[in-house]
Amino acid sequence: MKGSLNKLSGGGRAWTLIALALAFAAGAWFESLGFFEFTKDNTDEIWILFVEHVQLVLISSAISIGIGVPTGILLTRGFMRRYRNSSLNLLGICQTVPSLAVIAIAMTYLGIGKKTAIFALVIYGLLPIIRNSVAGLANVDPVILDAGRGIGMNPRQLLFRIELPNALYIILAGIRTSMVINVGTAAMSFLVGGGGLGDLIFSGIAMVDPGYMLAGAVPTAALAIFLNWFLGKVEGWAISPGLIYEQSGASDI
Amino acid sequence: MIRLEKVTKIYPGTNVPAVNDVDLEVQKGEICVLIGSSGCGKTTLMRMINRLIPITSGTIYIDDQNILDIDPIELRRHIGYAIQQIGLFPHMTVYDNIATVPRLLKWEKKRIDERVDELLNLVQLEPAQFRHRYPRELSGGQAQRIGVARAMATDPPVMLMDEPFGAIDPINREVLQDEFLKIQSQIKKTIVFITHDIHEAIKMGDRITLLDAGRLVQFGTPEELLTNPKNQFVKDFVGADRALKRLDLLKVRDAMLENPVHCHESDDVASVAQAMREKGLNFLLVNDPRDRLKGYVTLRDLYDQSGKVGDFTKPMTLTVRPEQNLKDALSKMLTFDIGIVVAVDNDGKLMGVLNTMTLAQVVGQTYDEHGGRWGKITAGGKIL
After folding, report:
1. Interatomic CA distance for residues B256 and B262, integer angstroms
2. Is the terminal CB of chain B with fewer CB neighbours within 10 Å at N or C?
3. Do B85 and A242 touch (CB under 8 A)?
4. Smallest CA–CA separation between B52 and chain A, in Å?
5. Where are the alpha helices (DSSP H) in B94-169?
6. Strand ordering across the sheet containing B319-320
7. Å from A172 to nearest chain B CA?
8. pLDDT by residue for chain A (253 residues), tens digit each?
9. Nearest C-alpha in A relative to B99
């Protein structure tokens, strides 16, 4: 494990250089589009929208997780198992509806505002979380469940001490996917008056002002990249070192 | 200690009972082995004892208490449970795995620490070295030891073990069996032990319960099963398996007929043919001047010929070596449909002959040793 980490960081140095070069080139290009000038003049406003965007993402994701993980748990309990496939299929179909349409549909019922935006983001973020929760829990080795039951764990102990810790990697991967997608989707909240960095992006597009648009797009992209990295770290902290080899076998869904 | 009365299990959606009307009593401090081929119901029977599988009809008592009167979770916490696939929790260290049940029973930390070290010593794993390892960092044998340690964590009077050494290589399995018997001689648990290996059953069991298609066929000590098999099924189960196992252990050297009849390639054809006729031999092995096997001749080839035997010799295409095991030799004989193989050493020197008769003799000894009824089968045709 250590060896591969070292190797990664060794290769990482070369990548860092390349990334820096690319960032420099992008910076030069952005400068020519007026990005930095706009940003410098409007730091406060961008910051407010950024915070708003982060709020949208965090609130909607928290709700998605709060609904999604328990739903995944329910769908893997004995009495609910027969609904599992139909539920997942239904969710799959929902996911094929474009995010913009979800937001539009939500608006027709809830009107304009943050609530509508959050509602749509929650709906859109649910599928990866539920699907991965179900997959993670369903894939826990039945042998260790039998062992747990056999030594006298009750269903609750089995869930919290055996099933969830072993399914954690896949569940967290689902949460990560959901949240990273959410950052992008949240940009559309602007369309229903939900605020966020989408304000700058869509206005920039409308005004054909690349600097304006980039002032929204660059922080959005940065937020998504940061969140992806950060949640990867969280996975590293949260998952038992005893499962470390199994991680390489699992994949983001 | 454990008493089963007319226990039957019919799985939902089937008509055929998986366990059919079984009466059984396991004495305190004894290892009772459940044995039978796969699908005979032994695992089902065992899993009914800790209520992992509900009983269809009949009653199971532990210490004269009907297990249905005990809360299943409580019941299981007081019955040790070890399975073939071990089922160590991969996300927990060795310490946490062993400490699982003590924690469920809310033991104090200090007591758990002491118990874990005690158990690790008992299964001969150095506590300081193994306590904080994860299951993936253990070898199969070590993991199996931890599995047994976990089952013994709270010192339960009863233990259920489903092929606990089944996934271990034969050498380590022997070691684990020996260790476990040594431990058992001190701790004297009441153990229900599943295996499908008659060797293991005879070695581990104070009593053996042979099951077939859900029914109890014979219950008794290993001696009783071997010397007094109740019917053909028991005989087959105990006997056939042992004989074949024995073939695995024995070498061609142990069974071959040494110094077999042969002739020399420079011998005169007429006199060899004459000698073969007198001895009633249809074919004969031929050696070269350095006593290496050259091949064989048949009486028909020598008929009315003259000259040296060497000119009529056919090569022997299939030979075995004395140090090969008998199973390989038998398998060659069966594959090539021949009743005899010749054993030669690395230089090609004729060492002996192995035929089905001598093989039967060796297998016969196996029965004999263990008190089978048939005794030794010897070569030599009619006895009078």
Report:
1. 15
2. C
3. no
4. 7
5. 94-104, 109-122, 127-130, 140-151
6. B257-258, B350-355, B340-344, B319-320
7. 16
8. 444 444 444 566 788 888 888 888 888 787 777 777 777 778 888 899 999 999 999 999 999 999 999 999 999 987 777 888 888 888 888 778 888 888 888 888 888 888 889 998 998 899 899 999 999 999 999 999 999 999 999 999 999 999 999 999 999 999 999 999 999 999 988 888 888 898 889 988 888 888 888 888 889 999 999 999 999 999 989 999 888 754 444 444 3
9. A151
How far, in Å, CA of B211 to CA of B189, rounded? 23
B98-116: burial string, b at 16+ Cβ within 10 Å, e else: bbbbbebeebeeeebbebb
Domains defined along chain B, listed by start: 2-249 (3.40.50.300), 252-366 (3.10.580.10)
Which residue in chain A has the smallest CA separation from B71? A152
Cα A144 → chain centroid: 30
* Structure-token match 């104070």, residue found: B206
Residues of chain B in contact with residue A243, where contact means CB-CB under 8 angstroms, are: 90-91
Rounded Cα–Cα distance for residues B343 and A127 (Å): 70
Distance CA A165, CA A168 (A): 5
State the Cα torsion B140-B143-B144-B149 to the nearest 10°.
160
CA distance B210 to B220: 9
Half-sphere exposure of B315 (CA within 13 A, CB side): 3
Q: Which member of A141, A143, A151 has the closest CB to residue B100? A: A151
- Exposure string (b/e) for B14-38, b if CB count within 10 Å is 16 or more? eeebbbbebebebeeebbbbbbbee
Whole-angstrom distance, CA of residue B349 vs CA of residue B345:
5
Query: How many helices (H) and strands (E) would you count in chain A?
Result: 12, 0
Structure tokens at B39: 């699908």
| Closest to B192 in 3D by CA, of B35, B58, B367 | B35
Per mean pLDDT, which range of A194-203, A238-247, B177-186, B334-343 is the poorest? A238-247
Integer Cα distance of A131 and A127 in angstroms: 6
Closest residue in B to A166 (Cα–Cα): B91
Distance from CA of B124 to the nearest CA of A (A): 22
